[in-house]
Amino acid sequence: MTRAWLALLSSALLWSTSFAVIRGALNHWPSVPLLTGRFLIAGLIALALLARRSRGLQILRHPAVVFLGVINALGFYAQFRGQETVSAATAAFLINTYVVYVGLLAYPLLREPLTPLQGLSVALAIPGVYLLSREPGVPWGLHLSSGALWILGASWVWALYILYSRRAVKRLDATEVALGVMVWTLVPLLAFVPSTLPYFGRPGFLLVAGYLGIFCSLVPYFLYVYGLQRVPAVPASVVLLLEMVLGALWGILFLQEHLQRAQWLGALLILAAVGLQFLSAGEP
């Protein structure tokens, strides 16, 4: 297994821990201060690291980095808006439909064709995501409320984020791209900083925001863009679906949550989809 694949797997592992951390943190603090505190820490550390690199701050003026940072913040905003009125399960399903849009747009935007194994992987991933994200007792149908439309919009944003991240790291220094995106993600959230700062004086907030900022934002995104240098957009996006499976595992281990049979089946389908992506790496 190459270092690029290991980097992608590591990023999925780290990002997956955010589900349990945020779920517990929301019992104590509102979502906006958590989101702002997370990227305030990630953005300031990224800015300091860029300043230590020769000509590192120049990456902040590159249009691709500005675009990625702004749409990253936009995606989080749309997701949080949707989750105000949409169940966590529906939100998880809708947000992860990004893998379909990446598959549709990978060739037009990146000239990366979808191989047969990759297409089969995507076909397995979507029902897997749906089954794993279902809540017991919730009807199988999907009602597209205004909140659901917000989250669908966020899903399209994440697809563009993945595709343009892949384009950026093929031309620019991956480390500087990762750090620059973290800085620009903070910029649209600066309006919430004054109302967020008092929360840093509350017990535990700095620890949680620091963990989310460093180990669920800065480090995994660096690993992700490193992997994107060598792994095409579609396989990379499917591998990230491991977040859902691992997130469910942390819920079982630390939050006393349980999976129904359909959810276990969904997890197996996602694992099969990821396995097919590794097999597709050897396709001619």
When the domains are counted, the total is 1
Q: Kindly, what is the distance between the CA atoms of the first and last residues, rounded to a whole number of angstroms?
A: 17 Å
Q: Mind telling me the C-alpha Rg?
A: 18 Å
Give the integer mean of the pLDDT values: 87
Contiguous uncertain segments of 5+ residues = none
Sheet with most strands = none
**Which class of secondary structure composition applies to the elements?**
mainly alpha
Percent of residues in beta strands:
under 5%
How many strand units?
0
Number of helices: 13
Order of helices and strands: HHHHHHHHHHHHH
Q: Provide the helix percentage.
A: over 70%
Shape: globular
Give a written overview of the molecule.
The protein is mostly helical and 284 residues long. The protein has one domain. It is 74% helix and 0% strand. The chain contains 13 helices and no strands. The protein has helices at residues 3-25, 31-52, 63-83, 88-95, 98-110, 116-133, 146-169, 174-186, 193-196, 205-228, 233-239, 242-254, 261-280. Helix 3 packs antiparallel against helix 7 and helix 3 packs across helix 8 (174-186). The longest helix has 24 residues, at 146-169. The radius of gyration is 18 Å and the shape is globular. The relative contact order is 0.22.
